[in-house]
Design brief:
The complex is a heterodimer of chains A (439) and B (314).
Chain A (H helix, E strand, L loop, with lengths): L1 H22 L1 E7 L2 H17 L2 E7 L1 H13 L7 E5 L3 H6 L7 H6 L9 H8 L11 E4 L3 E6 H4 L2 H11 L9 H11 L2 E3 L2 E7 L8 H13 L19 H17 L9 H9 L3 E7 L3 H5 L9 E4 L11 E2 L3 E5 L6 H11 L2 H9 L7 H4 L11 H8 L2 E2 L7 H16 L6 H18 L4
Helix pairs in contact in A: 10-11, 10-18, 18-19
Chain B lengths: L3 H8 L2 H8 L3 H30 L19 H7 L2 H32 L6 H9 L6 H11 L6 H10 L15 H26 L3 H9 L4 H29 L3 H6 L11 H10 L4 H31 L1
Helix pairs in contact in B: 3-14, 5-9, 5-11, 9-11, 11-14, 13-14
């Protein structure tokens, strides 16, 4: 009897020790990109303060959604913390993948008013515009443009542009101006190399062309649905303005991109810009710190630009970025919440920004010194004020894949018209919402 | 010399041996194959039956708590009347037919040439089979660069030989060229496989048959058509079967090269199926799609294997 008792006690002690051991290690899942590396560095402070060891699981962007949504949908316990894409919030909230954070925020004096409003709506709320929070805004991101300031400032190029267009060669304020500049640079010889107008998103497989085309179409009048009647899409998705926006995007692809740009997203854009192939580049703001330190395009050679305005002066930009959530299947939720509490601290957020992380905390971005802290800081700030995001519905993946197909088919493959592409999109989305029981 | 069966019997522990002694040969045979059969049932047959069941529902694997409704044949009807699905079937058929035709022609020719005795034969064979040893992801990346209009070797070669400017066309971005671009890459990668099978066939033909034919003054052309081709045909048909099945489920290489684009030009059935199942999470719908593809492949393969057996009997 004594032996059995001893064995049971030993087993219990082992299990307790094992649990304690497991409690001290948290796994954070995110995309494999520069900000993730910065977060690894930043998290060393958390490890030192809390004694909790951090492990990281980073997946390259093209496979990020696939891999992580599989993980969540299968109830996997790999991730304790997830920095998931903004569009996942609806599905993850409704399917119970994320822990609701309202009570935790209230208990720890974390106020969502302290964060940039667009990031709270985009990354944390579900349903949108209701005070139901499923994540803490972690990384603010938005599509913007970079341009070769050093080329723009060359006297011979500037003079030729002025002679041709009757205005100075400066950062474009409208999409029409942007296209003129892109056309002007297309095929031009600079320093003995042929350069091209602009790098834009055209990727087919995941979300590339949708992020790019939407970024332009918003400012031409595209809307996801009737503001007065949710899911009423006809006349909004395929409005004359939206059609004009899509036609513009195709014309930009046809006239002004480097040859072979039929399947390019963030990585290809970075390569094209850093290698001196293009004068203008569409990309998410997270890429900007990397340009500043690049020997070819850094050190003042690059200018940063908020998305230009459409024909009626409307100006919007595609939201990127993510919030950090606690995975509901994690057995270490307390430790994960501890990490979020630490991450929300103003001093952590200030350090996050200084390391290349795009903080969403107002105390950081509204600091008087913020706008001048980096050459791209003002453009980031202005861009975050005009963001719109893709559907964040539980069925977002279906909506996204239908969009990818319609847009790529028109813009890159050149099949049909913009009107047909957007009419088709209304049909696809309507079917999806009917299947979801929302129509 | 001791009988190996006796040795094995002696090595069997007494406890098991006592139990087996009371069993018939048939029962012992079943005892040996049962674990394999059980595994096959568990990992092949059960999922197949489960997939068939799901194909008649609206089940979505990402919504395990949602009500699962029986939808009858609706999924099948939607798939078979969807023009986009037929477009992917066409793209798959184009890829399948042309890769097989080219791989058989080039593979057989290479095997026929390699089969001759010449210096450096072994080295050349090793070099030829290198592509099939590479990972499809590596090959996809590698050819993406080769097809790059500004720096790619392919466009440069086309410009060199035809004068068409390298930057004026994109193999992967053009609706006309992209389907051929993926055929070329797959042919480059897998022709060596067909070549090896053909080579095995060619080397299995005894020399005395050719010697007899020469005694009968049969021309080399006649020897080729009446002896070489019929005797290699079963091997060739086997290679076609392997390549056909493999290419019907082609995924990685094409995703790497084009992602299914431009538009849907190179969207093969397996890529579309994966998107439906694991991106859109339409599990019921994708199960029906998988069953349709399974029936298609199984049906075609069965007919083909019958033909193969007839050729072997001749």
């Amino acid at each position: 009897m004594k032996a059995k008792l001893l064995a049971a006690t030993t087993a219990a002690a082992w299990m307790a020790a094992g649990a304690a051991q497991a409690q001290t290690e948290l796994t954070l899942c995110w995309a494999a990109w520069d900000p993730a590396n910065a977060l690894v560095e930043l998290s060393k402070d958390f490890e030192a303060q809390s004694g909790i060891k951090m492990k990281f699981e980073f997946v390259p962007w093209p496979n990020f959604a696939d891999r992580m949504l599989n993980e969540l949908n299968s109830g996997g316990k790999l991730c304790d913390l997830m920095i998931g894409d903004s569009q996942w919030i609806g599905g993850s909230a409704e399917s119970g993948h994320y822990v609701k954070l309202n009570d935790f925020f209230a208990a720890n004096d974390i106020s969502m008013d302290a964060f940039v409003p667009a990031t709270v709506t985009g990354y944390s709320e579900w349903p949108k515009n209701t005070p139901n929070y499923w994540s803490l805004p972690a990384f603010g991101d938005v599509v913007g443009w970079t341009y070769r300031k050093d080329w723009f400032e060359r006297p011979e190029i500037a003079a030729e542009f002025k002679a041709k267009y009757g205005r100075d060669l400066v950062a474009p304020q409208t999409f029409a101006e942007l296209k003129d500049i892109a056309e002007f640079f297309q095929g031009r010889e600079i320093d003995g190399k042929t350069v091209y107008g602009a790098s834009i998103y055209t990727e087919r497989g995941s979300e590339g062309i949708t992020m790019g085309a939407m970024d332009v179409m918003y400012s031409f009048g595209f809307k996801y649905d009737n503001p007065e009647k949710p899911y009423d899409m006809a006349g909004f998705v395929n409005s004359p303005g939206a059609v004009a926006g899509l036609e513009f995007y195709k014309s930009l692809y046809d006239c002004c991109t480097p040859p072979g740009s039929s399947n390019g997203y963030m990585g290809e854009g970075i390569d094209a810009y850093k290698s001196g192939q293009v004068a203008l580049q569409m990309n998410f703001a997270f890429t900007w710190p990397g340009f500043e330190v690049d020997p070819n395009v850094g050190g003042g050679k690059t200018g940063y630009l908020v998305n230009p305005a459409g024909p009626d002066g409307e100006r919007y930009a595609q939201l990127g970025g993510q919030g950090i959530s606690v995975v509901a299947y994690s057995e270490k939720q307390d430790a994960a919440l501890e990490y979020i509490k630490w991450f929300a601290k103003p001093e952590t957020q200030a350090k996050w920004w200084s390391m290349g992380g795009f903080s969403c905390l107002r105390a950081v971005v509204e600091d008087p010194g913020f706008a001048t802290s980096q050459p791209y800081a003002q453009a980031f700030l202005d861009s975050m004020a005009i963001v719109k995001d893709f559907w964040a519905e539980p069925s977002y993946a279906t909506l996204l894949q239908d969009t990818q197909k319609r847009l790529h088919d028109y813009v890159v493959a050149g099949n049909g018209t913009a009107q047909e592409a957007l009419d088709g999109l209304v049909q696809d989305w309507t079917t999806t919402f009917e299947d979801e029981g929302k129509l | 010399m001791p009988n190996p069966l006796d040795t094995a019997a002696r090595a069997t522990p007494d406890r098991i041996a006592r139990k087996l002694r009371g069993l018939s040969d048939r029962a012992i045979a079943w005892a040996f194959v049962a674990p394999t059969i059980f595994l096959l049932l568990a990992i092949n047959i059960f999922p197949l039956i489960w997939t068939i069941r799901l194909s008649f529902t609206n089940f979505a694997a990402n919504k395990p708590n949602a009500e699962v409704k029986w939808v009858g044949l609706r999924n099948y009807e939607r798939i078979l009347t969807d023009p986009d699905i037929w477009q992917t079937m066409q793209a798959t058929a184009h890829f399948l037919v042309w890769t097989i035709v080219l791989q058989v022609l080039i593979g057989f020719t290479l095997a026929w040439l390699i089969n001759r005795k010449f210096r450096g034969n072994d080295l050349l064979t090793t070099l030829i089979v290198l592509p099939m040893m590479l990972s499809p992801a590596v090959v996809g990346n590698f050819w993406t660069f080769l097809y790059q209009p500004q720096i790619g070797l392919i466009n440069y070669a086309v410009e060199f030989f035809t004068g068409i400017p390298a930057s004026s066309f994109s193999m992967l971005g053009s609706v006309t060229l992209a389907p051929w671009a993926i055929v070329i890459v797959d042919t480059w990668m897998w022709t060596p496989f067909v070549m090896l099978i053909c080579l095995a066939g060619l080397r299995s033909i005894p020399d005395y048959i050719y010697e007899a034919a020469e005694v009968d003054r049969a021309s080399p052309w006649r020897q080729f058509w009446t002896m070489t081709v019929p005797m290699v045909l079963p091997f060739l048909m086997l290679a076609v079967l392997f390549r056909g099945i493999e290419n019907f489920k082609m995924f990685d290489l094409v995703v790497q090269l084009t992602g299914g684009g431009p538009g849907d030009t190179t969207l093969l059935s397996s890529i579309e199926l994966k998107r439906e199942a694991f991106e859109k999470w339409r599990t019921g719908y994708s199960s029906a799609y998988a069953i349709i593809l399974f029936v298609t492949v199984f049906g075609l393969a069965s007919i083909y294997v019958k033909a193969l057996n007839k050729v072997k009997e001749r």
